[in-house]
Request: fold
Amino acid sequence: MRPRVMRQVELVEKVLAYDPNADEDLLNRAYVFSMKAHGSQKRASGDPYFSHPVEVAGILAGMKLDATAIATGLLHDTLEDTVATPEEIERNFGQHVLRLVDGVTKLSRIELQSDRTRQAENFRKLLLAMSNDIRVLLVKLADRLHNMRTLHFIKDPEKRRRIAKETMEIFVPLADRIGMQELKEELEDLAFAELNADARASIIARLDQLRSEGGSMVDRIVDRLKRTLAEQGIDAWVSGREKRPYSIWEKMQRKNIAFEQLSDIMAFRVVVRDVATCYHALGVVHQTWPSVPGRFKDYVSTPKQNGYRSLHTTVIGPENKRIEIQIRTQEMHDVAELGVAAHWQYKHNGKEAPEAEARQYRWLRELLEILEQTSDPEEFLEHTKLNMFQDQVFCFSPKGDLIALPRDATVVDFAYAVHSDVGDTAVGAKVNGRVVPLRTVLRNGDQVEILRSKVPAPNPTWLNFVKSGRAKSCINRFIRQQQRGQYLELGKAILQKAFREHDASVSEKALGPVVKVLKLRNADDVYVGVGEGNITARQVIHIVFPGQKEEDTADKLPIQPRPRQSEAKSGGIPIRGLIPGMAMHFAGCCHPLPGDRIVGIVTTGKGVTIHTIDCDALEQFAEQPERWLDLAWDAPSDGEKAQGHVGRISLVINNETGALSTVTTVIAKHKGNITNLKITNRSPEFFEMFVDIEVRDVKHLSNIIAALRATSVISSVERARG
Reply:
């Protein structure tokens, strides 16, 4: 028997029950419009498709949202799944409803590289939409909740798993962030049922067994709590329940314990009239039953980021059972159950609440900042997950401002939490008055003062220890800006060379057609694309000089004859200073050293890879002349210290006592610095190994090799490739 679809009058009455001033006409028109628009469409369950938006509207009414949000729930699929147009929605329901419907509309199925990329892009769009009006997220969560309730009707198991995983990774933490505990827990449990059905069934069976053995234990403990509080003059509403299967499973996994070792699988809520009574009730509970050390949390004086407030304690309660007790006021309870929806009552004389109201949530502002600073969708998804999943630690600024950070956050995380400029200019810190390293992990209650420089200079190595998504995105943004400048200069040099082959000069005007064809913003984007290797010089030439055929271009840009060092120095592009840092790297296949004849290959996403002229790896680029650069080493200027480079040698040494010590001594004596040593083969007679040595140039390495060859314990030594 299929569930009955909620009738129009039932929905309207449900809304009017909590909001007598609701726009009844808007609800009626939205109901009729949605029913007609979806027509004879069916869901995977076989139910009329119209049942879905009605159920979504019912969930929103359960959150006690305004008529505009409920109308959005009724209409949220009309733009994508029916012939209805935005103009129709605006004409019939107004601009506000259209904006919300457009924000919630299922996103177009863009062909992207991976499901993860698509998921990340969808999340970005959802965040942008809900940044103007949090009701977009509330409708989206209601939509996802009903889809999860009917997930079992989808026949494809892979699709079910994908939807369940996405729910757990994105929508559960979002529901948690806006404080919607009940909705979050139901989503978790529905996803859990799909992702690990066996584990869920096992936990449910254990819970059933406990119930059969203990009878109405929850009811008995509720009664005892009520009596105990009443004896002390406290009027309280008390309820109790078993924790949900997923919550139990997650705790078992986190603590690596069996079900039998869990003690606090029951949670009890005590709702009192005011804050003072909360602390009074807490005192009564602790006087009556022994508390479990380390399990008291005061979220009343220090609320969670999502606005959640409550006192949490765990005690050895009635019947010697370990139980968790949450103590809160009615207002706190409403917020705990409905989160942001508890605040979202639109009673502004029929007018919309200001959009700025949605921005009161610090977490949302932080996610928006990450969105602005992140170019890659997957990177954005990773950083936002960091922000949403982690537990918190609370620290103070010198002025006493409270800063919430993820667990195991460092001083750098704190700096970026204060402001991105503070993070970019951080050079040191004082924690509780003592100077500490920037990687210092902070603890609850630490007072942190950031020491700053005048010049922004985030260190890329910070990425190895920062924990917050905001810090990671800010550091990555700075690195990208630096790299962009390097890639831009490299791209200019490459295009200048390519244009000279055609007796032309590169300019912003000349690159105008390239910007248009490749749909870029400006000429700088062309230079950066060429520098990164995402755009080839040949592509640019073909667009600027459309009469050129590919074969002609190849003739115009042949692989240059291998220049002698003196020729390369005068005619080649001076790499040193042009592409410093991350925009240039040395190939691991040939380990080029100053003194070697070298060539550069423009590598996608990495800038230039430097190879020796005789490297076997160059063969794969023989048909791509536009990626080759003629390079030469710049000799260090007077007074400038030569930079160290890593050369690799292959050794075969006698397997005898002290042989390895002899090798290292010889290398050290000739001013070489061993950076890595790897034994590749061992026999009773010999060791075979690779040794990476930091040297000044190829002559320096040759001297070391000559000295090693003269050593009796060494059978053979050669410069190694690879």
